[in-house]
Design a protein that fits this description.
The structure holds 2 protein chains of 2 kinds. Chain A is of the alpha+beta class. Chain A is 37% helix and 17% strand. The chains are: A alpha+beta, B mainly alpha. Chains A and B meet through helix 8 and helix 10 of A and helix 1, helix 2, helix 3, helix 6 and helix 7 of B.
């Protein structure tokens, strides 16, 4: 495989906001998406360039150009980052145009340091996060949730919505816990002087009112996706619409189908048709957070919690000075006044493992026990009087009738009995 | 062959074997009434469960189904002794047990009362609580079937099999030089 340094070299022209331009070479790094390919830029290590695919139609390219020009001129105000945290990029926002033979070809954006960050997806599986050198605790998770909610709130204040908000498009700084959003050129913009829609959506994060139709309220869509991501982050990756069917109604196999008909099992009031996944630790969330989840998933779209509300509530838990998070006896961080989510999860997993181990032990011991029981029956050496009585057919509690029935008569009767049982089951079910 | 046909053929084959190997002594009329009632219920379940298109079973009847079964059973259990047709409970628990007539009478009454109660509770739950609760209640009553099954396994199948195994063992020992 060719190293990036040896890859073919493209020369393009960059046009910066002040109008100054320069010729640079692009280095292939093998990162290609649906709309374009990302390149490193020679002599500009802090930036990367996204070049739209050559197959993009002229009209589409013109729309991209218009959107990117607006974005370069209107960078949103983002949550402030303390000076000691240098080099944090919260948005892969366009900062310059890329021209090829005087024609628009793509844009330049700040480079997100992949060494300092990891995909937010990894936080959904704590083992995976640990593998990335990130020790997960609920304090860090709440901080990540807060930073994400703040970022989304800032975008909304600037009349910009993400729409296709999902963990795979998000990066987390492992030390600083700030969140970065990728694929900014796909955002929905609804400012007074410019409008551009985002056609891309992901069904597992799509609000119920937008299934099978266009996203007409992009902020509402972001609030739903934000709540879904926060729920998953705080609940070991469990999706808020993952549950166990508890009624005779058909239960959609896909999450999108469950979102569409509102099968949310983790509400403060239990759902009639679906039960929570046994591994869920939602009971250890504080009431203020559970209320926001209920409003996001179990109420009308008009009552959905906004990014601002999420940021306000989460800030109280992310801020150590409030004392809203405390340590359990084992030293895990927990929401004050609630059971420890880490201990609860460990107990669930341990209980499951213990049951599995006990079952396997019993299963392994079954052949030996069967042989021993048969031997005791045949030699008449049962230790238990109950088993002895059973084996000899001398049960004193219930006297058996002296029957002249043959084995065939018995089988005939038992067949009728089993058919009767099946009919009963069929009717009661 | 469709699944519906396969299930029907299997049940018919089992019933045929049961008919061929039936005990030749006269059965009490109460047992026949019970058998006819179950044959009708079974045919209904087989038809609407396997053959007819979905939605053809009367809407709303689903809530009544457990009650229909419990109350049918209860009526048979109550009426049969009054008409001198014996105690159908014997057919349910099995004729393997030597109980006195009075014991059978009280077992018959007890089962009739239990079925009447279950049928009534089903209607109460179905029409006064959320559907999810009714579904939960319906399945929880199925535990009774499990008990019946366990009862039969412990008292009839298992000892019978053990005794057969002992007989076979003794025969095998006797054949040894």
């Amino acid at each position: 495989m060719a190293s990036p340094k040896n890859s073919p070299r493209n020369t393009v022209q960059l046009i910066w906001p002040g109008g100054q331009s320069e010729q640079v070479g692009l280095i292939t790094i093998g990162k290609s998406g649906g709309a374009g390919e990302v390149f490193e830029i020679e002599s500009k290590p802090r930036y990367v360039a996204k070049i739209y695919h050559a197959t993009t139609r002229e009209a589409q390219l013109a729309r991209y150009a218009q959107k990117i020009r607006w974005m370069i001129a209107n960078k949103p105000d983002l949550p402030e980052i303390p000076a000691e945290h240098d080099g944090i990029v919260q948005l892969a926002w366009p900062v310059a145009l890329v021209m090829k033979e005087s024609k628009f070809a793509g844009f330049v954006m700040e480079k997100i340091d992949f060494g300092r960050t990891m995909e937010l997806d990894y936080l959904l599986t704590h083992r995976q996060a640990t593998g990335e050198g990130f020790e997960v605790d609920f304090g860090k998770l709440v901080t990540v949730c807060y930073n994400l909610a703040s970022l989304i709130n800032c975008l909304h204040s600037n009349k910009i919505a993400v729409v296709d908000l999902k963990p795979i498009n998000l990066k987390v700084y492992k030390s600083e816990l700030y969140v970065s959003i990728l694929d900014c050129d796909g955002f929905h913009i609804y400012s007074d002087n410019f409008h551009s829609e985002a056609p891309q959506v992901t069904p597992e994060y799509l609000a119920p009112e937008f299934h099978d139709k266009a996203v007409t309220h992009p902020e509402g869509q972001d609030w739903f996706a934000l709540a879904t991501i926060i729920f998953r982050l705080l609940n070991y990756g469990i999706h808020p619409f993952a549950g166990i069917a508890a009624s005779r109604h058909p239960y959609p196999t896909e999450l999108s189908g469950r979102i569409k008909i509102g099968l949310y099992p983790y509400g403060k009031t239990p759902h009639n048709s679906v039960r929570a996944t046994p591994a869920s630790i939602h009971e250890s969330f504080p009431d203020s957070i559970r209320e926001l989840f209920d409003r996001a998933f179990a109420s009308m779209p008009s009552g959905r919690a906004t990014a601002y509300e999420w940021a306000t509530v989460l800030e109280t838990y992310a801020n150590k000075s409030t004392g809203h998070m405390s340590q359990c006896l084992k030293g895990h961080l927990q929401f004050s006044g609630k059971s420890c989510p880490t201990c609860l999860r460990e107990a669930i997993i341990q209980g499951h493992a213990e049951r599995q181990r006990r079952f396997m032990t019993q299963l392994q011991a079954t052949p030996a026990r069967s042989v021993r029981y048969s031997k005791q029956t045949l030699t008449g050496t049962h230790i238990s009087p109950f088993q002895a009585a059973l084996a000899q057919g001398q049960f004193n509690l219930v006297r058996l009738a002296t029957s002249g029935s043959s084995n065939r008569n018995v089988i005939s009767f038992e067949i009728l009995w089993i058919v009767g049982l099946i009919v009963t089951f069929w009717w009661v079910k | 062959m469709t699944l519906a046909l396969a299930v029907t053929l299997l049940i018919c084959a089992l019933l045929f074997v049961s008919w061929l190997w039936r005990p030749r002594q006269t059965a009490e009329p109460g047992v026949w009434v019970l058998l006819i009632a179950y044959a009708l219920l079974g045919t209904w379940a087989l038809w609407f469960g396997l053959y007819s298109a979905s939605g053809q079973e009367p809407a709303g009847f689903v809530f009544w189904k457990p009650t229909v079964m419990y109350w049918t059973l209860s009526i048979i259990l109550i009426v049969a002794p009054l008409l001198g047709w014996g105690y159908p409970v014997k057919a349910i628990f099995g004729t393997y047990f030597a109980f006195s007539k009075m014991q059978w009478r009280w077992m018959n009454r007890g089962l009739a009362a239990l079925c009447a109660l279950l049928g009534g509770v089903n209607l109460l739950v179905a029409f006064n609580t959320a559907e999810g609760n009714w579904v939960g209640h319906k399945f929880s009553t199925m535990i009774i079937l499990l008990f019946l099954m366990l009862f039969r396994m412990i008292f009839i199948w298992f000892p019978t099999l053990t005794i057969v195994a002992i007989k076979l063992y003794r025969r095998a020992i006797a054949l040894l030089p």
